[in-house]
Amino acid sequence: VQLQASGGGLVQAGGSLRLSCAASGPIFSINDMGWYRQAPGKERELAARITSGGSTNYADSVKGRFTISRDIAKNTVYLQMNSLKPEDTAVYYCNADLVAKFSRKVYWGQGTLVTVSS
To answer: Would you call 14 exposed, middle or buried from its count of C-beta atoms within 10 A (0-12, 13-18, 19+)?
Structure first.
């Protein structure tokens, strides 16, 4: 099983980016999917999560600016980030709680760097 994240880059404050993360491999089912982020010198923190039923939760710092969504058929989760701020600068990691080969496990993507300039 692999999670491939993409969509990071350099953007000016106030701009937007859309991150994507596709899960591939012998996947039977996917439960929650999420995006975490880790800024330089800080611990990794949750940005947003979405359940298999479509329920979402967000960190207070991104509420109203970020939107998480998923395409179940494509095993893909997205993070639309609007009104970006310099403090959103971080490496963004996707993860998925899924069942593969009769085993349930949380998998992580490789991370994609988002840099917001002021």
So the answer is: exposed
- How confident is the prediction along the chain (118 residues), in pLDDT tens digits per residue? 999 999 999 999 999 999 999 999 999 999 999 999 999 999 999 999 999 999 999 999 999 999 999 999 999 999 999 999 999 999 999 999 999 999 999 999 999 999 999 9
- Give CA–CA dist 78/104, Å, rounded: 22
Q: State how far the Cα of 31 lies from the Cα of 86, in Å rounded to an integer.
A: 32
Q: Sign of dihedral through CA atoms 5, 99, 60, 42? A: negative
Show the tokens assigned to 60: 């207070």
Residues 29-42: b if buried by 16+ CB within 10 A, e if exposed: ebebbbbbbeeeee
